[in-house]
Amino acid sequence: MTVLEKPIVYVVIPFDGRENKYETYMENLQRIKRKEWKIQTIVVQHDGNISPFSRAFLLNIGIREVLKRRSVKCIATLNLDVSVPPNVDFFMCDKPKEVCGDLTCINHVDGVYVSSANIVLASAEHWEVVNGYTNKASKKEDVRANLYHRFKASGLIRSHEKLTDLANKKSCKCIDQNADERKKKTKQIMYHSDDSNEWKTDGLTNTKYCIDKSYTDKFGSTRLKINSTLKLSNSEMAMIKRPLYTSAIVLLKYKLIFFWSEKSGCTYWKRIFQYIQGIKMIMTEENAHHAFKNGLFTITHFKDSEVLSVMNNDSWTKVAFVREPRERILSSFLDKGLDDHFMKYFCKKKVKSLSEFIKLIKTCKDRHWESQVRLPRCFYNHITIGYMSDIKSFTMLLLKKVGAWNDNVEKWLQSKNVSIATRPHARNAKEKILKYYTRELEQDIFDMYADEYDVFHFEKKLFHS
């Protein structure tokens, strides 16, 4: 018999500190939850007193955190002031829709003006298409704060179509009994169309934050306490800049900062960066990796103030390129672990098996098996992550993004000599995992590199069942 997994609905709640309202809403959410649903709630709040309360910004953070999860279908953004009726189906998100109709506690125009105070249900793909909410508009009266404009401009709804089917709209109730009096004193907001394309760059793609604390509350919700200011301590600055031979590569012409790791295609990338910058030299190991000979500019040449500036500058593309830890460690073993001279020199001991190698590298430190998490964790929320498993497609996407892709580059990448020269350490690691690993060794890697599985969202799935 096939056992079907429960559909997951992620509920994102921006929290403004009112615990009594939160408790009331969570109790209501449990009542409308259906048995066949698996609801996971993410509550996002500022760490400390932030004024004014930035609901849209917190919703964007929640949506970004949801999009990191795998197999996400629906995301519902909810307002703590509103009680959703039990007949709302959170799993019907094939088309973006506004869940509630007339409301007394927010300035509401059915399906036409949709601010962060409204309750919207859409698929994960929809949220990515519209780029979430605005981060720039401080007030919901600002036309940029209208989510309806984003859905319309992106083509997810037709030009004169409303976001909700008024014939089937749900009647939501306000938790705050004094809302009616407040509405009498407020001016209703109407939508004015504009042709702004600012939504393409203002939203999920430029939401900057650090998660200061994450924990599970008594309702089972994941609580995220965030800080919107990206700062660097002296130790974090040293972590980013690193020693010269392992420092991130900077391409000034293309405004690209590339964080790389040994045994994760680094030779390949260094060759590409040499080529697109016109650095001509014979393809040898030394010419690729020798920091004084490869002609590549690194982030160590920046002043600390310049590093902080570019890391917070949206016009710069920041990339970290990584490899699945089991594949990377096996590649390190096949290339370095079986090199007796290398192991004797750096670890004072030779190894004969992957098991011996994994045991030894727990105490023998070297950059070839050092963790690939080489930035303060919160910075990974704001940079692009590339994966070895998608290296070919990622190469084209990245070079196109920074303006370095052309016919000559494409032909150069396809040439046989370049392919051979840029992958001197390729050992078909993935195909050999089953041969070299045991279930216990796989679990060792899960434990040793837990930070990588967490930060880069690698799947902890055993090859040996």
Automatic annotation (TrEMBL):
Top-level taxon of origin: Eukaryota
Catalytic activity, EC: 2.8.2.-
Alphabetical list of SUPFAM superfamilies matching this protein: Nucleotide-diphospho-sugar transferases
Location of the protein in the cell: Golgi apparatus membrane
Signal peptide: none
Pfam families per UniProt: Glyco_transf_7N (PF13733), Sulfotransfer_2 (PF03567)
Keyword Coiled coil: no
GO molecular function, one term: sulfotransferase activity
Keywords (A to Z) from UniProt: Carbohydrate metabolism, Glycoprotein, Golgi apparatus, Membrane, Signal-anchor, Transferase, Transmembrane, Transmembrane helix
Topology of the protein relative to the lipid bilayer: Single-pass type II membrane protein
Biological processes annotated in GO: carbohydrate biosynthetic process
Enzymatic class: transferase
Domain annotation Galactosyltransferase N-terminal: ranges: 9-93
GO CC annotation: Golgi membrane
Family named by the database record: Belongs to the sulfotransferase 2 family.
Name listed for the protein in its UniProt record: Carbohydrate sulfotransferase
